Amino acid sequence: MRISQLSTESGVPIPTIKYYLREGLLPQGEQTSATRAEYGPAHLRRLRLIRALLEVGRVPVAAIRTVIEAVEDERTDVHTMLGTAHYALASRPEPHADDEEWTRAREAVDRLIADLGWRVSPLAPGRDELTQTLVTLARLGMPATDADLLVYARTAMSLAHDHEMAKIPFDGPRDVAVETLVICTVMYGKAFDVFRRLAQESESARILEA
Amino acid sequence: MRISQLSTESGVPIPTIKYYLREGLLPQGEQTSATRAEYGPAHLRRLRLIRALLEVGRVPVAAIRTVIEAVEDERTDVHTMLGTAHYALASRPEPHADDEEWTRAREAVDRLIADLGWRVSPLAPGRDELTQTLVTLARLGMPATDADLLVYARTAMSLAHDHEMAKIPFDGPRDVAVETLVICTVMYGKAFDVFRRLAQESESARILEA
DNA sequence: AAGGCTGGATAGTTGAACTATCCACTAGGA
DNA sequence: TCCTAGTGGATAGTTCAACTATCCAGCCTT
């Protein structure tokens, strides 16, 4: 398959495909001569993944590249690779290192994760993201209660356990595992977010018509 | 309070505050002379809300303005106002109007919402967002099953019903209701997203150590 | 042998969210 | 009273991300 066919099949314009090639999101095609390269179904598949992450997940190009680089480095084991993917999907807030309020919130987050018995790296960016969210809620005058957080955490775990990690083929090839993980995280994350807003609208209608 | 104090209290630089004033995100201060205006605690509060939506929620400035305009238009009733806020928080995908696959997915979405008994406007952008997500999942070779979607939908409803809409003071002033809704939607949405990723990491660790 | 693609390189565009500069003016202290 | 830092308002510039456009030499088909 040549680049123009890749373009028509995927709906992505040629200059954009070239851009993804430059950025290392898409592997080079197999060079057949100085001015010709051959692309396969793997390229088409990768291209669809890129567009899905960009359009539905709003994942930045740089993060996508990070994931792809982790997959292509054969030395990393599967768990580390999945970790890298997860960390790339996070939106790191600036650390606010020397802030009293921040430090206390961060300790609360660490305690919560420990209490839940979750096995999460102390370096996981999610800890910082959660800290930022809690600090922000407090500053807005609506601090989250421990009880609320526990409900959210357990709900998240039940979805992750029963419907997401269960889908991931850990015994298959490594690239398929990461790809599945990323798709699950991003797409079902989006789906859940939309469902939540729809549910809120429905509740609002019910309450305000009474 | 003058603009410089607003800046130091909120941590937002003066030129940025001026930008928010220009963009209509922040109401003008009370003019006390040709070159002086007075800002109150409401401005500080608003500024914190703006930063929360931008930094934690990644809500675009244009969407924030839409919400604010709806609140300030006294003619709209509360339900419409909350609707406007919700719709502003959505990320409208382009409609793909004349696409067979899209149309079928859209019908499935409409059927699902009807089956759930949810009261959602047929114009709600969430319907399009969900359609896009399902089409994308199918194109990636991992179509969502009805059973999975139902679980996500019911889980979302239970959080929305018990922990989000229950918090909203429908009987108070209208601006407080919208503000609370937006904060709940965005901040707890973020919190849930982070919990989900942390839960996935924890599950991954558990599975791969066995 | 000619016209259309191709890969590769380089430069330009768009949109969002700021950021910087300028200016006339004025409040508030020396 | 005068001076100066700060103010509001306007306008223009910056940065970053994600493209998009143009150019060019070379091949491949017809």
From TrEMBL, chains A, B:
Pfam families for this protein: MerR_1
Alphabetized SMART domains for the sequence: HTH_MERR
GO molecular function: DNA binding; DNA-binding transcription factor activity
Keywords annotated in UniProt: DNA-binding
Origin superkingdom: Bacteria
Chain ranges of the HTH merR-type domain: 1-70
Cross-referenced PANTHER family: HTH-TYPE TRANSCRIPTIONAL REGULATOR ADHR, REDOX-CYCLING DRUG-SENSING TRANSCRIPTIONAL ACTIVATOR SOXR
Protein name in the entry: Transcriptional regulator
Organism: Planotetraspora phitsanulokensis
